[in-house]
Write a structure and sequence with these properties.
Elongation Factor Tu (Ef-tu), domain 3; 7-stranded antiparallel β-sheet; 13 strands
Length: 197
């Protein structure tokens, strides 16, 4: 479990592509990482498969490649990292599983003072879980939805988030990993029997 508060932003040092999987190597920004630990990479929960100082190695399965933008990673690509929370962690963002639901496309970006407004097209199957002022995770970053228009949502990115995540490196047309609010999915599941009455 994660909170969507990015702890580090690093560049990929090696990518090994297999027919149905991927291995990625990246610098280790954490002093006490252990083998088998879960780390969210662009919002996707991955397991530390190998520690080769100063690098970490991750294995990406076929299902993760299909759901996420990790298949497009290249040497030098910037990724957001967050370690799993502990029971004493402050929940500064929101509850994030690291189970990516799909991808969203950046359709518009504009500066508003020192902040940036980003407009995203969310898959219709995921847009139903979004509400104005609700939470959404994009590339592992916990964000607040400012407004909704069908399957489009607008998000205001403050200067700190802009400089400390890879959202600042995106261009119109780029895709990010999306995880919608976990609580919304549970509510839908619990209400399904009532909706069928």
């Amino acid at each position: 479990m994660f909170t969507g508060i990015i702890e580090a932003q690093v560049g990929i040092t090696e990518v090994k592509k297999q027919p149905d999987s991927l291995e990625i190597r990246l610098p280790n920004p954490f002093a006490d990482v252990i083998l088998g630990e879960s780390i969210a990479v662009n919002g996707a929960c991955l397991t530390v498969a190998q520690i080769d100082s100063p690098d970490l190695l991750f294995f990406v399965s076929a299902e993760t490649l299909e759901k996420t933008n990790l298949a497009r990673l290249e040497v030098g690509s910037s990724v957001n990292l967050e370690r799993a929370i502990t029971l004493s962690t402050r929940l500064s963002g929101h509850l994030v599983q690291g189970h990516v639901d799909g991808k969203a496309q950046l359709v518009e970006i504009s500066s508003v003072g020192e902040s940036y407004r980003m407009k995203w097209q969310i898959p219709p199957s995921l847009a139903r879980y979004c509400i104005s002022k609700g939470s959404i995770t994009l590339n592992g970053v916990s964000l607040t939805i400012n407004s909704l228009d069908g399957s489009f949502c607008s998000i205001m990115v403050i200067p700190h988030t802009w400089t400390h995540t890879n959202l600042s490196r995106l261009q119109v047309g780029d895709e990010v990993n999306v995880e919608v609010d976990l609580l919304a999915k549970y509510v839908e599941r619990l209400c399904q029997p009532l909706l069928q009455l």
